Amino acid sequence: MDAMGTQIGDEFDLSKIRYQRIILLFDPDADGIHGRTLLLLFFHKWMKPLLDSGRIFDVQVPCWKLDSEKLDSPKFASTDEQFQELKTRLESEGIDDLKTTRFRGIGRVGEDTLSNFCTNPETRHISLLPSEDAEDAIRFFGQLRSIMHPDG
What we know:
Blueprint: E1 22-24, H1 30-46, H2 48-52, E2 56-59, E3 64-67, E4 75-77, H3 80-92, E5 99-102, H4 106-109, H5 111-119, E6 126-128, H6 131-148
Parallel strand pairs: 1-2
Antiparallel strand pairs: 2-6, 3-4, 3-5
Helix pairs in contact: 1-6
């Protein structure tokens, strides 16, 4: 909060923000998904105007790397679906010696890939974290609670 200059809760003041964008980086695995959700819920509860202003982004860390001697450079996928599509496409193009790597954390991605996909403004892949995502998570957790504790 000090770095952003905005305070939180009732004291929050978007006009005092020091940055145009807040870009979050999480591991490309289930722990990263959970961390992203918790931070999104934090912003929703304590800094909702910041979330509503469209200034919070998520970096798309690749989960998969596909490489082959037949490729000029490795190919990357951020989701399991993208991985399957990319693998199918490459195999249909006759690339049958694919070596696949599943990244389990940011530390495993490698410095060049991390720079290219996450930190270099020219090549990184970021997406907006909208307030609606937090509201969807709140509804989902409410449904889970009612299932886990049906009597209230």
